[in-house]
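Subject: for your reference before the review

Hello V.,

The reviewers asked for a structural picture of the protein, and I figured it would be easier to keep everything in one thread rather than splitting it across files. Below is the amino acid sequence we used in the manuscript, unchanged from the supplementary table.
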Amino acid sequence: MAKYKKYDYSQGLLIPVNFDEQLIPGTLEFAIHTLVESRVDTSMFDERYNNDEAGCSAYDPKILLKVVLFGYSRGLMSSRRIERACRENVTFMALSCGQKPDHSTIAAFVSSLKEEILPLYRDILLVCEEENLLGGTFFSLDGCKLPSNASKEWSGKIPDLERKKDKLERKVKQLIEEQVEEDKGDDDEGRGGGSSGISNRKKRIEKLQKQADRIEKFLKENGPKIGRQGREIKSNITDNESATMVTSHGTIQGYNSQALVDSKRQVILHGEAFGDSQDHHHVPPVLDGAKENMERVGYDEDCFEGKILTADSLYHSSTNIKKCEEEKLDAYIPDKDFRKRDPNLRIKTPVNPKVRKKFTLKDFQHNEAKDEFICPGGKTLKLYLKKVRSCNIIYRQYAADKNDCQECQLKSQCIKNKNARRRFVSVPLVGTPDNLTIPMIEKIDSKRGREIYNRRIGIVEPVFANVRTQKRMDRFTLRGKIKVNIQWLLYCMVHNIEKIANYGVNYGTA
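And here is what came back from the structure prediction:
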């Protein structure tokens, strides 16, 4: 016969818990507790409260900051989940010293850190500098696109939203007319209709009318959203500061989160979230933010001079390269054809002797006196356009006569597009102030340039892997650029505190 241990749910168990002993030196929670208690200045929060004579006592900002940072490190982004952890998890109990802040208090605290988030972030960055975790000579910039608390189904240009509102209103009108006809039929037959069908139709009418009213209210309060190119882009009714972005995981409605990383210990110098999917204009604001952060922790105004910056090809633009030159940064930002020119990545295809080699710019002779080009067939190409921009490069374009190209026997080697009627020759303008792509291409294609750029992946990619995979930050839970940026900087703080816990000598161990 089986024999089991007896159990009785009416019995009690006394568990002695010493909060201080739960925060073990060498752990992330110990680093968070020690840094917030001893190095983070929370006096700025005192201005929020005027309850010294009357009113309920407020939760100490240090307690709230600790549980939020530790919650984010465990992948708990929801304020309700953090509230539950403070009631059930011993480590959270130790950080909150047994207090149990509710979810509304936690959510309001995070959302209200507009003015305080940067000073808090710089306090942690100062500790990184004191712990010798910053190298200050090699930086890498990258970003990741994350969904926000907004639906892409509520996106569209103003005419699209107006059509959607009209469609909803027509559907509401149609449902009301169907209901009226059904009521007439029931009256003529002398019997009542089904109450469940009427109730469902009424709920649907109310839902559709509410959606139409929401769009109408948005259209009254907002005009067309204009992009950097001067053209209208999609607005979003839920969060108009977010943007529709194409990612490897599909199209999302969200924000582009940027991080500038120091190469020594992968500390994030500055982070910022943008409602713009393109990275062509992100270098200036990120560098300005990082420069201000570094000045606050003791670096000079010219802290970027002579230092190295790497970024991928999505950042290749005149705006970004100009900013790097202004800061005297040795930047390595390749163009989109960088990998095609890399001999190590180029796929070697067998040469077909029957296919004739296409002519290149080197096969055309330049007549400097007349500013003309002579093609291999002996025909003249005259100046067509003085300046034309393509892929951030400014060219001077020359064109041949249509009749010369149509009758030329070398047409198959000269014109790549079979439907083209004549040959154009584009000559890059070297030395033009706005033509910054050519010097960057020459630098990035050098042996030293490729060696430096190849270091980028090992510096910045692990940072996003840590935040997105280990900390499980797969989306923003707040709306609006200010609140989303607060949440992103809090995650950057968690990452930096973890570096202090792992490599610092004063906060990671006893």
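For the response letter, the relevant points are probably these. The chain has four domains: 19-46+56-132+499-503, 138-147+246-341+439-482, 158-223, 361-432. The mean pLDDT is 88.

Happy to draft the paragraph if you're swamped.

O.
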